[in-house]
Amino acid sequence: VREPDLTGRHVVVSAGGTREPLDPVRFLGNRSSGKQGYALARTAAARGARVTLIAANSALPDPAGVDVVPVGTAVQLREAVLKAAADADAVVMAAAVADFRPAVYAAGKIKKKDDREPEPITLVRNPDILAEISAERARAGQVVVGFAAETDDVLANGRAKLKRKGCDLLVVNEVGERKTFGSEENEAVVLGADGSETPVAHGPKEALAETVWDLVAERLR
Ligand code: PMT
């Protein structure tokens, strides 16, 4: 158990995966379970922080002592994150956010027409929440942390993404068939905008969460 080094701090964590509806019964989604984000929320609360957890479609139980805000889509996630970030000392974006959403939402269930080929789905861009909160810090000294799920050239892609998004820290985790998404464990390198590189060995998602808070606490001091 760490020192209560986040006492008096308000931290915002996003978790889970957004779902972008096509019609009342279908959506475009991803495999995020919310486990990494919930581990971040639990460990921050244990270190004394007031925690707002913006939870996108996770089936996990609410962590004790954490303020949970459930959301569905990327647009809803953005609203909730911006609102909570207004007085936050740190924002950690562990959620897997859909980059695109269907351009049209069909109010009625899309029907299969036996005599016709299916209609293509047109997508439009979702807002980039991490880039937005990094560019317009709600508070001086606010620490912004992103996650990057990469399948190849993990470090090079991570460095480029850190720069593009403008956050202070980027947790780069490699994803694969049975890796990271949904599992109890994770393995990552935390890249700092200051050029630092902190590897975190394969282990429980709580261990990675503790390292993230160590690096955040350092930057808040
Ligand atoms: O939930 P689990 O099953 O435990 O899995 C954890 C995880 C793999 C989902 C998590 O560790 C993780 O890597 N989350 C980020 C996944 C992701 O969407 O990465 P990305 O490279 O697409 O996005 C980079 C960053 O930008 C992320 O912080 C993301 O929250 C943010 N983003 C992305 C798109 C968008 N439109 N807005 C954003 O803010």
Question: Could you please describe the fold and organization of this structure?
Answer:
Residues 11-221 are annotated as: Phosphopantothenate--cysteine ligase. Keywords: Decarboxylase, Flavoprotein, FMN, Ligase, Lyase, Magnesium, Metal-binding, Multifunctional enzyme. In the N-terminal section; belongs to the HFCD (homo-oligomeric flavin containing Cys decarboxylase) superfamily. It catalyses: N-[(R)-4-phosphopantothenoyl]-L-cysteine + H(+) = (R)-4'-phosphopantetheine + CO2; (R)-4'-phosphopantothenate + L-cysteine + CTP = N-[(R)-4-phosphopantothenoyl]-L-cysteine + CMP + diphosphate + H(+). Its EC number is 4.1.1.36, 6.3.2.5. This protein has 221 residues and is α/β, with parallel strands linked by helices. The protein has a single domain, classed as Rossmann fold (3-Layer(aba) Sandwich), CATH 3.40.50.10300. It is 27% helix and 30% strand. It has 5 helices and 12 strands. The strands form 3 sheets. An 8-stranded mixed beta sheet has the order 5-4-1-6-9-10-11-12, with helices on both faces. The protein has a two-stranded antiparallel sheet with strand order 2-3. The mean pLDDT is 95. The chain binds ligand PMT. Ligand PMT binds at residues 32-37, 74, 93-97, 99, 126, 128-130, 146-149, 173, 175, 180-182.
